Amino acid sequence: MSLDISFIGILIGSIMASSVPLILAASGELITERSGVLNLGVEGMMIIGAISGFALMVITDNLFIAIVGSMFSGVIISLIFGFLTQSLLTNHVATGLALTIFGIGLSAMLGKNFVGIPGKEFPILFSSLRESIPFFGPILFGHSIVLYFAFALPFLTNYFLKKTKLGLVVRAVGDSPVSASNQGINVTLVRYCCILYGGAMCGLAGAYLSLIYTPQWIENMTAGRGWIALALVVFATWSPIKVLIGALIFGGITILQLHMQAIGFRIPVQFLSALPYLMTIIVLVVISRDSRKIKLNTPTSLGRIFYKEK
Amino acid sequence: MATDLRISNISKIYPGCIANDNVTLQFKSGKIYALLGENGAGKSTLVKILSGVISPDNGEVFLNEKNLKLSSPLDAKKNKIGMVFQHFNLFETLSVFENLSIDATEDNKSLRVRINEIFKKYNFSIDLDVPVLNLSAGQKQKVEIIRCLLRSPKVLIMDEPTSVLTEQETEELFISLKKFCDEGILIIYITHKLKEVLSLCDEVAVMRKGKVVSVSQTQNEKVETLANKMVGQKLAKIKKKINISKNKDEIFKVKHLNFYSDDPFETNLVNLNFSVKKGECLGIAGISGNGQNELFQILSGEIITPDTSIIFRNKEIAKLNPKQRREYLMAFSPEDRISQAAVPELKIYENVALNNFKSSNFFEKGLVNERKIKEHSKKILSDFSVNTDNVELKSQFLSGGNLQKLILGRELITAPELLICYNPTWGLDVGAINYIHETLIKINDREKSTILISTDTEELLKLSDRIAVIYKGKLSKIMPSEEVTPEKLGVLMGGGSID
Description:
Shape of chain B: globular
Largest sheet of chain A: none
Radius of gyration of chain B: 24 Å
Structural class of chain A: mainly alpha
Distance between the termini of chain B: 48 Å
Number of domains of chain A: 1
Oligomer: heterodimer
Strand content of chain B: 15-25%
Helix content of chain B: 25-40%
Distance between the termini of chain A: 70 Å
CATH topology of the largest domain in chain B: Rossmann fold
């Protein structure tokens, strides 16, 4: 195989595509966690998004409805989490784990009739430019709209958190819900919104898998990506830009090690398979060494239940 | 415009405790009002009601004869009632400006202008773009005050504002409060410090067990009369007789104590050297967060630092852990009673057993000898007048004062040669403080030594034979306590120099 320049372009393009679900889910979870809520149900919400997106596509034959519907289903399932943790004040960790188990089971049940049905081709943008420009063409063009959205999302999230009033409120609630409440901020409402937004993004991440990346329904097709997204948020120390970097490294090494396995490198396959996880953690730990910055980005109240005095 | 705030028949009942019992009070602008009472007297409940954090079971609040519905903090804000809480309501990881802008209605530019106007008017100066966690307690309080001022309040409530301030910061605060008062802001000042009431306030209402027991002009009051009203009984006066004898043995000697930490929340300690003589109390003053935590942990053996030499009774103990140090007859009383000194979920007798693994045959062949521990615990409860004789009670149900007595009792029952305590009376009421102080003096009378790390200057001056000040991890020179005044301590605690 020749490592010519256009091949590298295609390779980078495919790395970008493979990191999209991680970016989407992690960006959503980042907002949720920044408000002080630890939702371990990312995997469950993603898989629900995947099946509902695919099912809606098959039923309505309309990709737009499928995409919006997958986000909506993410919202619905995260609403269960929100109701339990914010209204009934249950433990975040236990509730999130239950949500994941529930999501995986429910998606398998709902998906029974959709196994083996071929997906629909998802429209890609600027496909002519992709072919005509060497190297940069396959990187910049010929992707689905969801990919462009995913790559804009970390920057939008960063802007939202740092520059907007609402972002400030979210950070304040995550820092000290008691103070926020005493300032007249409706902590429960803010946290509900962040949870539902996280759900929507996880739903979209799932739909990307079942509608665009590998257009079909396979049981358990998220294959742990939700957990990776969760880990990315923590290792990226709640910084959206670092989430993007982490997702790209993970996606990149996943793709590269597959190529290496195919070529037949004399490295044990198990090690190659473990490589994406190892490298992502190492890189994120190295770029997030400034303990001062970590303190400033970490939502102090993460995972703690907030009781309002009466 | 004059402001008139009236609280009428307010009651708030929590399970097992009447926090406010038919409280009626009236305040008018142009004066500073004190609300005085011990911990648990119901002051905080009352101000939480005024600020809309909790709602009363009964009663009404009138502002200029308008009946206020205060069902959320927003209502208090709308009605121009500003509140500075004892435990700051700030967002530590956000910048000062973000803290101030979070509930502002104007754009950032004009907000900055207004903040700078306030800075100029009251002589404040704080960097707006640093995170709040970098500020000193005094600066944090100023941020809280500015946040209130931005809303041009009619009423400003200060809940125990000086508990974290130095003498100088307290003076500055008082000057600001008097200015606010002259501008027509009604100020309600909550405290349990009697001297502050006398020096700052015009009128004082005393609360005890949820009730208002007296309202009077401060000019007619003295420290003693207020204290008696507050406690409801006469308090014995404690005075320690200072014993500095130059030729006594040094029982405890620390050399080259250095501590370096990456954690921005921890303070580095730089080359501390000091010693304690037999029967002496060495006081270490300072505003919290200047290295006291780290110092206490190093002295107790929770943190082991390299190259430090700690000689105790002629033995080198710098590498020993807390348990081993206890075996050499050291004892420790940490600042945080609930999470460091005792396990709140455990019963009293279980907590007593915790630090006595070796001694007094509490354990036989790996089994717990419950009977012996209980006997021993009962003795502590009665010897240290803890307000219960039920050793099966979970420790979390003890009040702060009783828990502190239990902890001191537990530590002292082994007759230690040196007791190191950190803020032993933090958050306690006058009665309990008196008892703890008497106990600490008795230790010195028996020729045993104490190291008292405290943020309360009055306490230090009362109990210490010699005093040093810790500031940003450095220790000042050690001074005999008769040469020390609160003012001198204040200067040193704020980083100044007195020579």
